[in-house]
Design brief:
Helix content is 42%, strand content 19%. It has 577 residues and is of the alpha/beta class. The chain has a 7-stranded mixed beta sheet. Strand 8 and strand 9 form a beta hairpin.
Amino acid sequence: MHLQKRWQHEPGSREESQLLENQLHVSQFLANLLVKRGLVNPQQAETFLNPTLGSLTDPLLLTNLEQAGTRILHAIRENERIHIIGDYDVDGVTSTTLLVSFLKRLGSLPHFIVPRRLEEGYGMSRQAIDRSLSAGTPSLFIALDCGTNSIDEVASLRSRGIDVIIIDHHQSTQATPEDCILVNPHIFDDEDSPWRNLCTVGLAFKLVHGIVKILREQGNEEAQQIDLKDYLDLVAMGTIADLVPLNAENRILVRHGLKKLRKSNRCGIQALFQVSGLGLEGKDLRASDISFKLGPRINASGRLADASLPIEMFLSDNFQESIQAARQLDEMNSERQRIERGIVTEAEAMVEEHYSDAHGVIVFNHSWHPGVVGIVASRLTHILKKPVIVLGAEGTLAKGSGRSVFGLDLVEALNQADELLTEYGGHPMAVGLTIDQSHIEKFRQVFNDAVFKQLGDADCEPTLDIDCWVEPEHITTSLLEDLEKLQPYGQANPEPIIGTRDFQLAQAPQSIGQGGKHFRFNHYNPAGERVSGIGWNLGASLPPSNTSLDLVFKFGWNHWNGATYPQMEILDWRLSE
């Protein structure tokens, strides 16, 4: 019998599911999926299924946001010089683009920079600040997606008479900067606030919304003409790429932002669509399109070069210049992939030889490029099903990134090693850190213990948590219509995993890919609809035809060669009992 993983299914309450069916007039299948997501209150479930922009809360409720907006408006009215520094990831790039374009709309001409990762490090480093100030001394300095832990740097700016605003969502590893305006829900706002888990581009949108609200209340005519929906394309990209939970206000912003992104009139976005193969008219964008196509290309310049390139591209009104920039990003992404593949191979061998029994894995090599270690950490976490930190060298220091697994707060784990780390920060699922190379071995022990403390001796055997079982005859387009209502998928709203029993293939699957690595098949349901099937990395053991099979799969639309059809992505199979 073929069995790759352990299957498990915990059915939700039938009574709760029945309540949603009756009150929301949805199918039993959709009601079951809502219950599995903890959405048992009909009103809460209705809001989840139909997230409206009108449900967004008043932006001025965020701690310190009104103060930040008022200070920015004062700077614009007095024609003060404004400098902006944003992080080099997608969240930082989109945040910077959003705020710069908005301030230009109001007549300001802000100067912006993005830290050069290899020379200046992360965030508000002294080197990055000095480069910014070399262009002139501003009255107002705004940090986006960084700054929460930059106590000394803020103090240095304030000593020069420069006001500082920080818009950030990273957790604090120490005391926060003083004598500045800090907007960070993780520092000041309640855990149940609907804006609590916004990433920085979401907070930048809130800031812009707040400024527009203040201006409209003052009778400003220009503010009446601003359509806030024009910024949602940027919000969707940054939010999805930053792996924050896609619930509450994040869900609202991403659901509507993806629609805006598809129709975006930004030359840079259209150029990026073209080079990444997303130019297909009529095809709805998915969160996965950001995660696997747009995001990596935007990130590539910050990892290997200068992340100001995608910002300039998004701000440009010249399509030919944008296409040239997009092609550069595409080439950088290909180079990044090549470097990354080599490091992943080396890191896997290192783990197998030395750290296979570790609860939390730390790997380090002097030759690894610090710019791609975050992606390598993501890949290894996916492969190993464990939290992973990957470090590259910079002088006597090691710099790197960590990625977490469900149930582990990575920042809390690093807090246990606070005395060993030169600096660190991030959020529960992803962190960046710097450590002296001489401390790495001790760090391994402390990190391993910290992971064990949070997760215990959890069974690391791969499991498939099945959300819902369906009959083979129900695998139809109507099932897909229900699944569409749960989009967009992401953190805190994963794509449903479905099981079916006694499924029969009329014809044997076909091996595809180099060495028959994958397989595919075609199936026709009782309604006569063609449903394709694909089994990625399952080609070593093909399911037989004309035999009752149990399948675990994801179900979605596949767009290929101009055609669109339902597709089952097979995650595992076994012979029916």
